[in-house]
Amino acid sequence: MESQISNFKPLIVNADDFGLSDGVNRGIVRAHEEGIVTSASLMVRQPGAADAASYARHRPRLSVGLHLDLGEWVYRDGAWVATYEVAPADDAEAMNAEVAWQVETFLRLVDRPPTHVDSHQHAHRSEPLLAAARAVAQRFGVPLRHFTPGVGYCGDFYGQTGKGETVPEAISVEALVKLIRSLPQGVTELACHPGADLALKSVYCRERLREVETLCDSAVRGAVDSSGVRLISFLDV
């Protein structure tokens, strides 16, 4: 694959939160089948995980990684507040046990190893989850988001600020086309969060529907084709 992509800018378009709900699954599936999504990260604890895994088992072109799910936090009244926590952030033993469970659950559901490792809200960028995430990535010989040399990460395609303020223009067709045309050399992972679930209990909800439409827009595909970009997945890295 390296020789085949050497003359192009390789781009992995990865959908986070696969398995979060049936509606999120529908959005990701559409963005894969009709749009530019090539990979997804599975949350094995969430209600739609089994259906997401079933889809993945029959779609070998879609690379599927493990989206470690240790909790979720929202910004309220000037502070970050947990909406749920699976294990205490400072308890390495509990964290390691939870990660081990999620890995084994992934293997049981998907029936193949993860093609990459990342985490919900980038929680693995801090210890003790970082050490556990590194161990999983090393076990399977796969990239770990933010930490694998040669695989750059881009999170610019996101419809909110870091404090949860809506930024619809960031997930517009125009924004994604501009982003694609300005990609650097080397492999880039572009994260996205498509979905089709207005009933989703999440601070990032309506934006997911907008992402689906953008990811499936013909102008976005045209930008890929005309900008020296080649869509790949983590299977190719």
Structural class: alpha/beta
* Proportion of beta-strand residues: 15-25%
Number of helices: 8
CATH homologous superfamily label = Glycoside hydrolase/deacetylase
Kindly report the CATH topology.
TIM Barrel
What is the element string, with H for helices and E for strands?
HEHEHEEEHEHEHEHHE
Largest sheet descriptor: 7 strands, parallel
What percent of the residues sit in helical stretches (DSSP H or I)? 25-40%
Count of spatially separate domains: 1
Low-pLDDT runs = 1-5
Which CATH-level-2 architecture?
Alpha-Beta Barrel
CA radius of gyration: 17 Å
**How many β strands by DSSP?**
9
CATH class, anyone? Answer: Alpha Beta
The whole-number mean of residue pLDDT values reads 94
Description:
α2 links the parallel β1 (9-18) and β2. α2 packs parallel to α7 and α4 runs parallel beside α5. Strands 1, 2, 3, 6, 7, 8 and 9 form a seven-stranded parallel β-sheet that branches. The protein has 237 residues and is an alpha/beta fold. Mean pLDDT is 94; it is low at 1-5. 35% of the residues lie in helices and 21% in strands. The protein has helices spanning 2-5, 22-33, 49-57, 92-110, 129-140, 173-181, 206-215, 218-226; strands at residues 9-18, 39-42, 63-68, 71-76, 79-85, 117-119, 151-154, 187-192, 229-232. The protein has eight helices and nine strands.
